[in-house]
């Protein structure tokens, strides 16, 4: 007689229940297996079916559906259908998913970009330079711009990080740690300050200048030379122009952009009044998700870390980049607000600091990953703020 095929009896979940809802379902005391034998020399009965206890097999779960084999009955979870992917298909044939980097390289159409200040602020000009066709969203404070992106009111935020004359904007460095946004790009903007006043007002009529504190500092010598001695600090440059226009001030001028003059109907009494003509502000572009780093274009990576107290600790941290020939473009130290003082062996307590560092490197580069892995071995805190394309355009 020809060998018989193995008889397989499928085990399916019981769908029908007894009419008595309180009846106890049957639970087998032992896990059983069915053994089907074909005609061979070891089995005298070629069509025998034996039932015997089985050892617990390893469970196999795939896509939410537990496999059922003849070694035992297991109740599967709810079945989930999954598409079958041909194993012979070349994965490179499949279309590449859209990444955040692709969206970032667009002109910003449909994006809502938050910035700090009133309409006409330099931050709005930076947002328009970064995303030419975006919809700008003015915010009263820097913190508000961060919250706008986190709460999905805006898609991006463009905020100043440092100025070539005034230095770093420390408030935004602190906010980078307080919030969970990622730096996805940078844009440099040449700042051209103008002295604005209401129509009919002359320079000799002005006794005071109103603007953002950094703008006032950047024009200090020029204002003194014009005979304007008094200074009034406000939250932003465009806000100063708005105040001068709304209150029709006759003895106070505003330091702001030429765009602010057009928006608020002011006259431009003097242009390019900054003390240093090479006045550039670097802005960061923030998003809820990081972009995918690349190596086919210049990238920059921003990190923040803290170290243990001891001689040579900072030297050791910077050496992990130097030994891999990774150039640093910026290093900034800020007090650690959660740990303002650290305990030392001496009676004195030293300040605990965070170090903000910008690297000329991409996180997609293995040597950058190795350097940060090395730093993580002895740093007490390390966070990557973002890896993003370098702005190589003229400011």
Which range best describes the helical content: under 10%, 10-25%, 25-40%, 40-55%, 55-70% or over 70%? Answer: 10-25%
Strand content: 25-35%
Counting DSSP H or I runs of 4 or more residues, the number of helices is 10
Radius of gyration: 34 Å
Largest sheet: 6 strands, mixed
Which secondary-structure class do the elements indicate? alpha+beta
Spans of at least 5 consecutive residues whose pLDDT stays below 50 are 3-7, 9-77
Q: Globular, elongated, flat, extended or rod-shaped: what is the shape?
A: globular
Question: Kindly state the mean pLDDT as a whole number?
Answer: 80
According to DSSP, the number of beta strands is: 21
Query: N- to C-terminal separation?
Result: 90 Å
Task: Provide a quick synopsis of the model.
This protein is α+β, with helices and mostly antiparallel strands. The chain has helices at 100-104, 122-130, 142-150, 170-178, 213-218, 220-225, 237-246, 258-264, 313-322, 366-376; strands at residues 32-36, 49-53, 61-62, 65-66, 112-116, 135-139, 156-163, 167-168, 182-190, 194-197, 208-211, 230-233, 252-256, 267-271, 280-287, 299-306, 328-335, 341-342, 350-351, 353-359, 381-389.
């Amino acid at each position: 007689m020809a060998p018989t095929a193995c008889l397989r009896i499928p085990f399916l979940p019981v769908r029908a229940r007894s009419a008595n809802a309180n009846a106890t379902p049957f639970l087998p005391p032992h896990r059983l297996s069915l053994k089907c034998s074909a005609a061979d020399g070891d089995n005298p009965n070629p069509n025998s079916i034996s039932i015997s206890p089985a050892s617990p097999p390893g469970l196999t779960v795939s896509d939410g559906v537990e496999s059922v084999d003849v070694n035992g009955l297991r109740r599967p979870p709810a079945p989930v259908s999954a598409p079958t992917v041909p194993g012979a298909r070349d994965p490179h044939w499949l279309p590449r998913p859209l990444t955040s980097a692709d969206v970032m390289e667009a002109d910003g159409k449909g994006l809502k970009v938050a910035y700090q200040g009133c309409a006409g602020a330099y931050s709005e000009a930076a947002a328009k330079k970064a995303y030419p066709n975006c919809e700008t969203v003015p915010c009263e404070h820097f913190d508000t711009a961060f919250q706008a992106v986190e709460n999905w009111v805006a898609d991006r935020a463009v905020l100043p990080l440092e100025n070539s004359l005034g230095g770093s904007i420390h408030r935004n460095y602190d906010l980078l740690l307080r919030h969970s946004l990622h730096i996805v790009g940078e844009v440099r903007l040449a700042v051209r300050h103008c002295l604005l006043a209401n129509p009919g007002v002359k320079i000799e009529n002005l006794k005071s200048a109103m603007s953002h504190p950094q703008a006032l500092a950047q024009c200090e010598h020029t204002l003194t030379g014009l005979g304007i001695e008094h200074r009034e600090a406000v939250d932003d440059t465009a806000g100063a122009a708005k105040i001068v226009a709304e209150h029709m001030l006759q003895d106070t001028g505003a330091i702001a952009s030429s765009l602010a003059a057009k928006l608020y109907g002011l006259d431009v009494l003097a242009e390019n009044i900054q003390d240093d003509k090479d006045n550039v502000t670097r802005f960061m572009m923030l998003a809820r998700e990081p972009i995918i780093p690349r190596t086919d274009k210049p990238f920059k990576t921003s990190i923040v870390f803290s170290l243990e107290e001891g001689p040579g600790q900072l030297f050791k941290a910077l050496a992990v980049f130097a030994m891999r020939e990774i150039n640093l473009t910026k290093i900034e130290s800020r007090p650690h607000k959660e740990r303002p003082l650290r305990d030392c062996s001496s009676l004195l307590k030293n300040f605990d600091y965070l170090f903000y560092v910008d690297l000329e490197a991409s996180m997609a580069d293995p040597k950058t990953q190795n350097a940060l892995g090395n730093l993580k071995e002895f740093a007490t805190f390390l966070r990557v703020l973002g890896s993003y394309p370098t702005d190589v355009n003229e400011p």
